[in-house]
Amino acid sequence: MSDTLDGVPALSALRYAELSPGDAFGPFTEPLAQGTSDGLRGELGASSPGRLAPPGVLPLLTLRLLRRALRGIVPGGVLTRQRFVAHAELPAAAEIVAEVWVASQSRSERGLFTSFTFALHHEGALAAVVEWTILDPATG
Amino acid sequence: MSWAPFPRVSHTVTTTEIDAYAARSGDRNPLHVDPAFAAAGPFGTIVAHGPIGLQTVFEALTRWLGAEQLPPGGLADVAFRGPVRAGDTITCTAAPPEAHAGDVLVRAVCRNQDGGLVLEALVVVPRQLAPRVH
């Protein structure tokens, strides 16, 4: 995958506590390269060719989209949950258009939980919906 | 006739893979790449990105289905329960697949070499796509 994240900071100045449910980001265009799909088709480190994007593409793409949305990765966040729903076939090489929004937030003794939803479109059709929940242990 | 068993898949995670995933995903969260920051964090050391451990589930899933991707109508719900460190060997196993609301459900878990729970996953696929044994 070419580094199309050039110009997007590696780390965000935002904190999860500064976000609110309903905050929306995008749409973003995220290219998916054949080589990226092939490298996630089986065991990490191996590569095998294929026609469609393997499931491991979904967390990778959404991680890149999260960095775009928050203008960097917020340091210290811990991934606690991911949910992937497939709606249509996604080719191994594709241009993805995605919207990201903050779905919910909740606080517990462990910290602040923030959930994001990613809607991934390909050629105008919804291909997948991905949900993430991230724990910020520093914010209770 | 019953559902084919979900394959068992193991993988040993390396620092090289963590660094490569950071580069490919653009996630340079210091928990994954900065030893000093990670030492003061909740795990006391650098940990792998969650999807690195999850890859064993996805590898098992595509092998089981004989398909390249999570098929339309399918879903995977994953709860990350514990960290994956460089050198850990992650093994994905699953209970026998079961019928669920007209689909087929697989309950998978990933554990490290010490038996520590890394993640739990529920995978649901359309019934007609789930492989059977005769």
Number of helices of chain B: 4
Largest sheet of chain A: 5 strands, antiparallel
Low-confidence stretches of chain B: none
CATH class of chain A: Alpha Beta
Helix content of chain A: 10-25%
Strand content of chain B: 25-35%
Structural class assignment of chain A: mainly beta
CATH homologous superfamily caption of the domain at 9-13 and 48-129 in chain B:
Hotdog Thioesterase
Biggest interface found: A-B, 48 and 39 residues
**Quaternary form:** heterodimer
Strand arrangement in the largest pleated sheet of chain A: 1-3-4-5-2
Q: Helicity of chain B, in percent?
A: 25-40%
Please give the domain count of chain A: 1
Residue fraction in strands of chain A: 35-45%
CATH architectural designation of chain A: Roll
Question: Layout of SSEs?
Answer:
The complex is a heterodimer of chains A (140) and B (134).
Chain A: E1 24-32, H1 34-39, H2 57-69, E2 78-86, E3 94-108, E4 111-122, E5 125-136
Antiparallel strand pairs in A: 1-3, 2-5, 3-4, 4-5
Chain B: E1 2-3, E2 9-12, H1 15-25, H2 30-33, H3 35-39, H4 50-65, E3 75-80, E4 89-94, E5 98-100, E6 103-111, E7 117-126, E8 132-133
Antiparallel strand pairs in B: 1-8, 2-4, 3-7, 4-6, 5-6, 6-7
